[in-house]
Amino acid sequence: MRTPQAILWDMDGTLIDSEPYWQQAEFDLVAQHGGVWTMDDALNLVGYDLHDAAKVLQHHGVDLEVDKIVNFLITTVSTRISRHVPWRDHAAETLAWVRHQRIPCALVTMSHTPIAQTFVDSAPHGTFDAVITGDMVPQGKPHPDPYVMAARTLGVDVTECIAIEDSPTGITSAMAAGARTIAIQAIIPVQPRPHLSRIQELDQLTPSVLDVVMHGATIDFFTPG
After folding, report:
1. Each residue's pLDDT tens digit, 157-178
2. Are 6-16+87-215 and 18-83 equal in CATH topology?
């Protein structure tokens, strides 16, 4: 059975159900500045680099500098995650069996270090061999830089890695880097793409699925039969 050189995990929406935290922070900030923010606006920001997200919020009436917007979002979301880390169903168990298989893991998130570290601290020690955050890369998702950096940090070939993502932005980033990509359903419907595998829940990520993907095929738990 063929295993990946590493698994590269997105965080928000993939391992933890934190997107509602981000959305509430965005709604609150825009409202404070008298602007209008809709759920469609919030969904369009899922997976974005925070500095890019801040520029979008400026266009919706937030009269603050980009860095101040980013700091507000980080502080607000970090506070909520520190009170409760909203693990996705089956996430902890899936990470545990991956580690048992001795497959290196990297966390690849556009959240900044304080938020990512809070999550990492909630996981068993040694779960992640590398952590790449939005404040560490020159260009965030959808650019390939985060996944390229993760593979380089682990000392592996990104094309021999599997990335697990939930957002269109993150999927684009992982595939552009050359990682074999598996999308998981979260708050945004996962649309089919060439060479993209799709699962609905993390317990569908099994050794046999990794083997299929590493042999160049795709799996799709959205397709009946």
Report:
1. 999 999 999 999 999 999 999 9
2. no
Predicted TM-score of the model (pTM): 0.89
Domain ranges of the chain: 6-16+87-215, 18-83
As a whole number, the mean pLDDT across the chain is 95
Half-sphere exposure of 209 (CA within 13 A, CB side): 23
Q: What is the CATH number of domain 18-83?
A: 1.10.150
Q: From 79, 103, 116, 108, select the one nearest 156 (Cα to Cα).
A: 103
The residue count for the chain: 225
Classify the C-alpha dihedral 116-122-123-124 as positive or negative.
positive
Residue 27 contacts by C-beta under 8 Å, 6 or more apart in sequence? 37, 42
| Residue 19, helix vs strand vs coil | helix
Q: Phi and psi dihedrals of 199, rounded to 5? A: -125, 160
Give the pLDDT confidence of 180-212 residue by residue, as tens digits: 999 999 988 899 999 999 999 999 999 999 999
Query: Are the CB atoms for 18 and 78 separated by under 8 Å?
Result: no
Q: Is 6-16+87-215 in CATH node 3.40.50.1000?
A: yes
